Amino acid sequence: MVKNSKKILKLKKKIREIRFNFLKLISKGVKYHIGGSLSILDIIVCLIYTKKIDLTKASKTRNKFILSKGHALGIFYTILMDLNLLSEKKYFSQIKKHKFGGQLDTYNCKYVDWSTGSLGHSIGVAIGMAIANPNKKIITIVGDAEIDEGSVWEGLFFISEKKIKNVHIVIDRNRLSASSFIEKKEVLDKKLLDQLDFNIFRGNGHNLNDILKYLKIIDKSKSSLAIFNTIKGNGIPEFENSLKYSHGQPDKKLITQVLKNLKN
Amino acid sequence: MKKDIRDIFFENIRDQFLKDKKMHILTNDADVYSLQSIKTNKRFIDAGVAEQNLVNMAAGLGANNKKTLVYGFCTFLTFRCYEQLKFNIASHNANCKIIGVGPGFSFSNDGPTHHGIQDIQLFNLIPEFEIINISDNNLANIVSKNLFKIKGPVYVRLEKGVQNYNSNIIYNLDQGFQFTKKNKTSKKMIITSGFFCKIANEVSDTKRIDVLNLFRLKNFNHKKFTNICSKYDEIVIYDENTEYGGILPIILNIFSKEKLKAKLKTLCVKDKQYFIYSDTRQKILSKLKIDKKSLEKII
Q1: What is the pTM of this model?
Q2: Which residues of A touch B75 (CB under 8 A)?
Q3: Which residue in A has a C-alpha nearest to residue B280's C-alpha?
Q4: What is the interface pTM, i.e. ipTM, of the complex?
């Protein structure tokens, strides 16, 4: 228990640092979708800093990660910089050379396991990766609006029916799509997913105990599906549950104030 | 009109929607400012990011004598639901208008998933679809007011931002093209479409070259178009789409059929998916060497 509390304190500190550094990039004029990035921040930090996805290892030897909601890439780059896998100089030079932008791709960053940008593709790709790498876990983070895509369901049914054992899907249930609030989502709310042959987990995506519990489920030899309740723009009151900052950029004054508040 | 081109287009559509109870508007979670006031109307359907279902619903409505207008990102309303468009919309000749926003490199920072540089040809391959590529505010106003006068399925590409040029042009929808720059003695002409018409106009001001804006890409007046082309010694085809994905194959087909003899030059995007990103469209055009400077060079 003591060990776990220490771990949680460490992760909390890391989350605060990554949030700050991510927002610093925004303050320097880089454009990212703030809302959907901050909603998955806690989950992605836990995945990477507990080494469930160990980016320090060569891609061939580690578990794979697909950020299906690719517009949340700013957090991923911030983590790469924090891990000293990418220097700030190189990051800005890649932007200048038009190699880094609003989506992740495998051509311009070797730590990216799959290019994303179109929604609903990652589960099928993860199945292929899982079949090709039976001893590795394939982890993907999917947005809750994204599950409207039919290809998501084709992938889920396939995993369940064919007993694919190593695909782990995290649904970021932040209740906000690009254009509207999606409070009601019957496939999640009415537990329809419980009929499928997955380890199903429901939790709070900003509660590290819940996230760590789920990471233990990933270790099991069965595919899993986690529905994490999250808040778009989590941690910054000005951005929380805001349609405007789902993908809009704050002005200089606001982002400066936000950073100042975080520092204090 | 210093309005965003999307507001001009969709305000006209909204006015028609409120008057015409047969009309339904559908989207895949795309946000349009001018339509916010009708989002709670029963005839407005946001299907979420589920394009195949979205287009099939439009077909079902069309089969029951409804008019449908479907809008969303041009890349996702084409590649994502292509068979549904071909079979359920086109082969049943549904009165469905597909509005693709974000053509070309207008969403420059979002990579190849959002770069609309092949969608024209996808619709060109479906016989029943008409294609209209809107370049400016003036044309957006005319097309949106007359869209449902065109029978059957139509694909419209809609720019973003204030495209406040060509305001003096009297567009003729049936003809499908219009000179936006014409000099009395010029024997050189640029044929272009969409956003690139703006750049071609600017180049014309310094190079004294004529500019023809081809905005209706299928049922335009081929005879008149051929006649015009035959009067020029040199023609530059200038397009923001790929060489196979945009207007080039359409024009080459006419040149081949009509045995036109003008010297042809082309400036369009190479046949490649570009994993490049930028905060401005201009920087992408410059990187791909299809910007104003490159056009000036080729002339």
Answers
A1: 0.89
A2: 118
A3: A98
A4: 0.79
